[in-house]
Structures are given as C-alpha cells and as structure tokens.
Amino acid sequence: MGSCSDPSEPINQYALVTYLPDELGQFLDQLRRDLVAKCNARSHLSLLPPRPLNVDPHLAESQIQHISSLAKPFVVKIGRVAIFPKTSVIYLELESGQSELEALHRKLAVGPLEFDEPYPFHPHVTLAQNFGVETVEERVKLAREEWASYKGAREFLLEKLVFVQNSSDNCWVDLKSFHLQGLPSVSAVPQTDLPPATAHGSAL
C-alpha cells in the first residue's frame, strides 16, 4: 500500500490491511525503500487484496465491523524472504498466523466484498515490486542480508484492521479502523511480551 499526505482523485479500489507495528514496521518500511528507492508503501499484511466495490463502501464497512467484532486477535510471526516466480515480487513469508489470516479472508471476501481475485490468497509481507526483473537476484540478496541483520521482534499481535482506498496516483488512504474484539486465548500473546520464565517454558 503506497501512502501519501496529498492523494489525488479517489478511485473505486479498496483493500483491507493490517499495518506492521513499531520497530518491525519501521525496519521493513526502510527495507522497502532500500530495495526500491521511490517506494512510499507502508509495510502491511493484506486480508483483502485490492478490489472494486459494486456497493456503497459503508455496506462493506458494516460487514468488516461485524466480522471484526467476533474475531479474536492472534499472533503473526514473519519468516524468510521469498519470491513469487510469476510476478518477481519479493516478499516475506509467515511462520505463524497464516491459517488465521486465511480463515478471516474467507469470512470477509463475500457479499459486498466479494471479488474474483487474480491469484490464490497467500498471506505475506511485500518487500519489492515494479522493478526491472533483470535486477531481481541482487534485490533478493540485499533483502536477505538486511532481514538477517534485524535483531528486533519478528512477531506481533494482530488486533486491528484498516479499510483503505486507492487514488489515481496510487496513494492509499486509511478510511476506517476495526479492532478484533473477541477475547484472545493465552497462546495468542507474543512470546516477547511474556515474563522470562513463561516464555522459556513455552519454547520447549
């Protein structure tokens, strides 16, 4: 999602995302700029990839609100650097949280938000796209080196979704936020937030 402070004319293209928080998000924002110099995207996971709406956006928001009110927050952990061979998009895989994201996607992508998506839903964090394919190997190498150097937390509690709209100059604007309001289970707490003894025990 490319964000900006002064978007042009809104267009009929919407998505539902969750932004990566704090140090992790800031690191990946910079990594995206290192890989593609003019990238203005904010690091995120897409629950609904970009799509047009055939209904009033408020109907879509009502559906998101209803599903969010029932869904429980869950832990997402970011994994290794990979590449989609058909599109040469460089991305980060997930080590945990994929099944929960897929389940939420199935619940959301119906009715007002239904869309014939061009690719099977594959939760991931995009790192680089829209570049000369002849440079893909060097960009993948750089992505892996920088990601390996990151010492911060690679997991977070996913508890907020953001409905966004695109503009004619590909600047995405946040429309409304939704909190997952179901009570998380004890296991849905990142290990980095647990006391040392508990975190050590859960890692066995």
Tell me about this structure.
This protein is α+β, with helices and mostly antiparallel strands. It has helices at 22-35, 57-70, 98-108, 136-149, 196-202; strands at 10-19, 44-51, 74-84, 89-96, 125-128, 155-158, 160-167, 173-179. Strand 3 (74-84) and strand 4 form a beta hairpin. It is globular.
Helices and strands, in N-to-C order?
Answer: EHEHEEHEHEEEH
Low-confidence stretches: 192-204
Q: Number of DSSP helices?
A: 5
Strand pairing plus helix content: what structural class? alpha+beta
Distance between the termini: 37 Å
CATH class equals Alpha Beta
**CATH homologous superfamily title:** Cyclic phosphodiesterase
What is the number of E strands?
A: 8
The largest sheet is: 4 strands, antiparallel
The total number of structural domains is 1
Strand order of the largest sheet: 2-1-7-8
What's the rounded overall pLDDT mean? 89
Percent of residues in helical segments?
25-40%
Q: Tell me the radius of gyration.
A: 17 Å
Give the overall shape: globular
Q: Report the portion of residues in β strands.
A: 25-35%
Write a brief caption for the model:
The chain is an alpha+beta fold and 204 residues long. It has helices at residues 22-35, 57-70, 98-108, 136-149, 196-202, and strands at 10-19, 44-51, 74-84, 89-96, 125-128, 155-158, 160-167, 173-179.
